[in-house]
Amino acid sequence: MENKPSVVMMGLGYIGLPTAALIASRGLKVTGVDIRQGVVDTINKGQIHIVEPDLEGLVHKVVKDKNLCASTKPVSSDVYLVAVPTPFKGDHEPDLSYIMSATKNIIPTLKKGALVILESTSPVGTTKRMEQFIYKERPELKGHIFLAYCPERVLPGNILYELKHNDRAIGGVDEISTIKAINFYKHFVVGTLHPTNAKTAEMVKLVENASRDNQIAFANELSIICDKAEINVWDMIALANKHPRVHILNPGTGVGGHCIAVDPWFIVSEFPEESLLIKKSRETNKFKTEWVLEKIKNKVLTFKVEQFKDPVIACMGLAFKPDIDDLRESPALYVTETLEKTDYTILAVEPNLTSDPNRVLVETSEAIKQADIIVFLVSHSDFKDLKLDNTKQVLDFCGVLNS
Questions:
Q1: What is the chain's Cα-based Rg?
Q2: Which entry of 29, 150, 180, 259 is annotated as an active-site residue?
Q3: At the fourth CATH level, which superfamily is domain 208-402?
Q4: How far apart, in whole angstroms, are the C-alpha atoms of residue 179 and residue 228?
Q5: Is 365:359 a contact under the CB 8 Å cutoff?
Q6: How is 287-310 classified by DSSP, letter by letter?
Q7: Along the 403 residues of the chain, how does pLDDT read in single tens digits?
Q8: Closest CA to 259 of 324, 213, 290
């Protein structure tokens, strides 16, 4: 294995910070770069600004050992990782401005022999666009630096383990770039490193999340059908899954997060005539969230007719999935925000957040006590085994009561 290279990590969010900390724990010198001064200051104190098990202890150690430092500007380095957001804009068009801005910021620091790796989820061809942009600004580097794409595939709540142990698909813009990138990841990944080209690696990431979106859409569509048929969808799925070759996922409020709710659109935007099923899955999961809202509104109207008063509604969960604090693209948050715009009294509950700048958070027990209608939007562990009064009206969209 090569001597330990110096590393710059562009972006210190949910993926960038754990990755930077893991790399630093292997004795590599890492400079983490983020445009948010508050994030930089927090990390340099050995603290973290996100919720992820075991991460704070690791960050504290690698900062103390001087293997990780944070900055608002990159420094000259051997390896550059780009892990910045890739949202979409307008009609689900990919927004590459964060990637191109990060690339622009590292260009002055690049030297011959540098390895640049894009980890951000990206449309097919983005790594090649980065290469062209770099060579346009620094033509003397053409043929003297290496570029590759390597997407992460991790589960929030278990990121550190999965960054280290999961297999990775690594694709360079040429064969030597692929080899260079694989040798780099060997410093901190014990999973198998699979060589490919950049375009294939980019598509692999998009297809992985589009596949999961499709599976969730099937479950969510079943939940709507079973509701109309007056069938308990969770019991039905559990029985269907007794088949040795059937594995249906559990339905929920919709699909959120920066990956599954976004990535399929990157395929649809480039291949609109070919990606019919992928688009339909996205539409189904978006529809499920609107369906949830209508079910809540109908329950409210029934309550008002029967009780002659407006109900207090507890929205249980704001994160996009169980047991994390991440609100990105969260269908539960969308439902709560939509209800907050009405005249209803809404109690927002998110046990994984200590505060929210946009609303007052209510403790689980207090919300259960005050609410007339309890709406489970996320199956957080904190919500399981709750003792609910028979006088409470309950809507369970995530299977908390069936767990």
A1: 23
A2: 259
A3: NAD(P)-binding Rossmann-like Domain (3.40.50.720)
A4: 54
A5: no
A6: HHHHHHHHHHHHHHHHHHHHHSSP
A7: 458 999 999 999 999 999 999 999 999 999 999 999 999 999 999 999 987 889 999 999 999 999 999 999 999 999 999 999 988 887 788 899 999 999 999 999 999 999 999 999 999 999 999 999 999 999 999 999 999 999 998 887 799 999 999 999 999 999 999 999 999 999 999 999 999 999 999 999 999 999 999 999 999 999 999 999 999 999 999 999 999 999 999 999 999 987 898 899 999 999 999 999 999 999 999 999 999 999 999 999 999 999 999 999 999 999 999 988 889 899 999 999 999 999 999 999 999 999 999 999 999 999 999 999 999 999 999 999 898 988 999 999 999 998 7
A8: 213
Structure tokens at 274: 């070919």
Is there a shared CATH topology between the 7-191 domain and the 208-402 domain? yes
Look up the CATH number of domain 7-191. Answer: 3.40.50.720
Say how many CA atoms lie within 13 Å of 110 toward its Cβ: 29
Catalytic residue at 259?
Answer: yes
Catalytic annotation, pick one of 180, 205, 279, 321: 205
Instruction: Report the SS3 class of residue 143.
Output: coil
Where in the chain are the domains?
Answer: 7-191, 208-402
Distance CA(186)–CA(333), nearest Å, equals 39
Structure tokens at 213: 């979106």
- Residue 92: what residue type? H
Is 205 marked active-site? Answer: yes
Beta-bridge partners for 32: 9, 70
E strand intervals along 350-403: 373-376, 393-396
